[in-house]
Amino acid sequence: MAEMKAVVKTKREKGAELLTIPIPKPAPNEVLVKVKATSICGTDVHIYNWDGWAEGRIQNVPQTLGHEFSGEVVEVGSLVKRVKVGDFISSETHIPCGHCPQCLTGQMHICNELKILGVDINGCFAEYAVIPEIVCWKNDPSIPFEYASIQEPLGNAVYATLEGGGINGHSVAIFGDGPTGLFATGVARASGASEIFVIGKNKFKLQIAKKMGADHILHTDEVNVYEYIKEKTHGVGTDVVLEMSGAAVAIENAFKVVRRGGRYTAFGIPSRDVTLDYANGIIFKGINLIGITGRKMFQTWIEVRNFLSSKRLDVSPVITHKIPLEDYKKGFDILNSPESECGKIVLLNK
Ligand SMILES: [Zn+2]
Ligand SMILES: [Zn+2]
């Protein structure tokens, strides 16, 4: 039986193992992909480190890690129609059921029964992966493998930045210097934001934000974020706030920084309940509060493809590491190091 290498969570404890396992067979509604590039996400780090979230969330061990990838279709199930052998694909990582009220009304990204690749089913940190046809996304052949791999977090950034009236001509404060915040910076720049503030805690990542088009990078240890933005916006605040960190202090500042009548987009996930001044923060300011999860299927993917294929958006500053799949431990070590001097780490198959 043909075999492949895969990074597998084998025990309900920290770590993962590189194993040789059988190449999976696609079900009638699935395709088999030869993975070219796959990237490490915060979710993978949670699972690798086996924190409280992973302990409560992960059902199946052993399970192959990973959900972000690009690759070539090498086999299709008997019912697959839209995808063919040889197609260069990535995939939406949230697998919808196809029959709940949201799925039936164009909101598959908030399906009642979402399953997530590499979380609920075997993922793509491997030489091959099986992917349901419903989430396959055909890439523009001009897009490099490593860029095609990061479209999932890039899609979060595109959806968050453009949802709720766009960003053209608007000032924006982006809280969080992780990959999604950095991608959002580039999306805001490419989409005509007037002035971009990026707020973070990591000097290395804030320098990437600068390359992605931030006008102001604010290190939370060095500046009073609220006072700084207030001064630069003539006391008004920014038109748009993208909260992409989930940190309680950032959420509090973000509600203060958004101008009256502005847009507050919530994406970062707090690790515990947050308190906020509901009356003054939302109601009396008359803000639009937008929750973002996943990516719109497939409007966001079309937008992402167009940003990349037009080269209007250069994501290369965010992709800081390209290493072989076998060196996955090194990737997790970099992400877990206190300095965390990285953006996206892409794992490549030969
Ligand atoms: Zn991801
Ligand atoms: Zn559904």
- The level 1 CATH classification of the largest domain is Alpha Beta
- Tertiary shape: globular
| Total beta strand runs | 18
Strand share of the residues? 25-35%
What pattern of helices and strands is seen along the backbone? Answer: EEEHHEEEEHEEEHHEHEHEHEHEHEHEHE
Number of individual domains: 2
Bound molecules: zinc ion
- The helix-and-strand class reads alpha/beta
Oligomer: single chain
H/I helix tally: 12
Calculate Rg over CA atoms.
20 Å
Query: Architecture of the largest domain, CATH level 2?
Result: Alpha-Beta Complex
What are the low-pLDDT stretches, counting only 5+ consecutive residues below 50? none
Largest sheet: 7 strands, mixed
The mean pLDDT is 97
Roughly how much helix do the residues carry, as a percent range?
A: 25-40%
CATH third-tier fold name of the largest domain: Quinone Oxidoreductase, Chain A, domain 1
CATH superfamily of the largest domain: Medium-chain alcohol dehydrogenases, catalytic domain
